[in-house]
Amino acid sequence: MIYYHGVSTRQIDNSIPTIQTAGSGIVFVLGTAPIHTVDGKTNIPIMGTTYNEAIQSLGYSDDWKKYSLCEVMYSHYKLYEVSPVIFLNVLDPENHKTTVAAADIDLIEKKISLPFDAIMKTVVVKVETGTGDPYTKGTDYELFYDNDKLILEVLEGGAIPGGATKLNIGYDAVDPSKVTEAEIIGGFDVATKTTSGFELIDKVFPMFKVIPDIIICPGWSHKPAVAAIMNSKADNINGIFKGKALLDVDTTTVTYYADAQTWKQTNNINSKNQLLCYPMCKLGDKVFHMSTQVAGLIAKVDTENNCPYESPSNKPLKIDSTVLEDGTEVAIDLQQANYLNSNGIITALNFVGGFVLWGNECACYPSNTNEQDYFISVSRMFSWVSNSIILMYWSKIDSNIKRRLIDSIIDSLNIWLNGLTSEEKLLGGRVEFKEDENSTSAIAAGKIVFHIYMTPPSPAKEIEFVLEYDSNYVNTALNG
Questions:
Q1: Where does 94-185 show beta strands of DSSP type E?
Q2: Cys-Cys link to 110, which of 33, 154, 183, 336 (CB 3.0-4.6 A)?
Q3: Side-chain half-sphere of 233: how many Cα atoms within 13 Å?
Q4: Which pTM was predicted?
Q5: What are the distances in angstroms from CA 242 to CA 32, 82, 247?
Q6: How far apart are CA 239 and CA 119, in angstroms?
Q7: What is the pLDDT of residues 206-251, one digit of tens each?
Q8: DSSP letter (8 states) at residue 209
Q9: Cα separation of 246 and 2, whole Å?
């Protein structure tokens, strides 16, 4: 023993770990983007924290029917002002393209406007009639994307004659219509050892350390096979995390609100992991899939509360009408909206104070009437608590099972649950280490079980006031 004479101190590790809660309302959106304008990536998750950052990585176009990721960029960043968003583009300019035959095009003030879909690196420019060697980009002419055009500009001092009135131009054009449903769904290619489509949601947490708990795919989610894979992924992100898949009813076939319920049944949309939206919506001249706007609203409400305990229902949407795919306006009144809600479909209602989201029920309703499953906010709170606990205690995996470990987990979890209760994000919550759930053989085999009891507040979906005529007030008034 080393000799010491005096006062000393030492520190030990805190038995109560720092609480690390999961984010909520973080959107994973799969679709198409004009990546040919920015040399973007295909089947690589991209995290965008700002509008400009997303555009720099993926490009932008107002043609949302071709480029669905741009719809989400506009809604999330411009309208709801929330981030981040995880984008996955499946459009590949190398494969999803068509060849445009070379033709003579008028040169006006030394410029030519080509379509936005033209792929810059494929452009071949020759003298009128297309004879001879092609001109050289950067020496004879320059190309740049400007809004909805690819602009060719003749450079001074190049080989293109100053008096030229036409140039012969051919190119490949990106063609989003060639993206297939199978490419959206994705999978693992054994031959190339590559992953694509929705399978890539499992790469998000390892790459960015965020859990994408809201999954959308505007323009595709109405397809049964796509809806099925979205449901599967929402229930099993990275094999352990939970989320919600936001789906749209197909408004090309469902043009009357009452038919949405039949469409839902026919397409087997009935999971607690799904939120089903009808119809589409519009702001000015921009048409949105409702799932896009609902994702933005959920993210906004979650951000304001730091968790998903509050329902997004009866909160303002950024729209001025509800429409079908073809732009036909469909006004949903209160009775129609409540009919949709009673069948597990959320919608938009313009009743008091402008357009709001209307509906508290997941798609499992009314066949599933367990509040833990069908109420959007209650169900999402269970998922959020589950995701948060995984993050909090992952570092405890492979620790020796001792009483101190068990007490540390119980104490820290109860402190956290008590904090959520004091903030009224839970009505109550506690954790117990129950003897009947922890047999000696299970503990010896390395497994311990903690039982969490919790009750998130339910949304006040119905408020009733009872009015009664009281004749006593007559006597009181007349007799002074």
A1: 97-106, 111-115, 124-127, 141-146, 149-154, 166-174
A2: 154
A3: 29
A4: 0.92
A5: 25, 21, 16
A6: 39
A7: 999 999 999 999 999 999 999 999 999 999 999 999 999 999 999 9
A8: S
A9: 66
Looking at residue 235, its amino acid is: D
Closest C-alpha to 152, from 173, 185, 184, 125: 125
Distance separating alpha carbons of residues 112 and 455, to the nearest angstrom: 64
> Which string of DSSP letters, residue by residue, matches 23-35?
P-S-EEEEE---G
Question: Which residue has 């956290």 as its token pair?
Answer: 416
Domains of the chain, residue spans:
27-91+179-376, 97-174, 399-480
Task: List the beta bridge partners of residue 402.
Answer: none
**Cβ-based neighbour number of residue 51 at 10 Å:** 17
Closest CA to 296 of 374, 348, 255: 348
66 in Cβ contact with 32 (< 8 Å): yes
- Distance, in Å, from the CA atom of 246 to the CA atom of 292, rounded to the nearest integer, reads 8
Q: Which of 290, 431, 265, 410 is nearest to 347 (CA)?
A: 290
Matching CATH number, 27-91+179-376, of 1.10.10, 3.40.720, 3.40.50, 3.10.450? 3.40.50
| Tokens representing residue 468 in the block | 């009664």
Residue 23 pLDDT class (50, 70, 90 cuts): confident
User: Which ranges constitute the DSSP H helices of 190-251?
Assistant: 204-208, 224-234
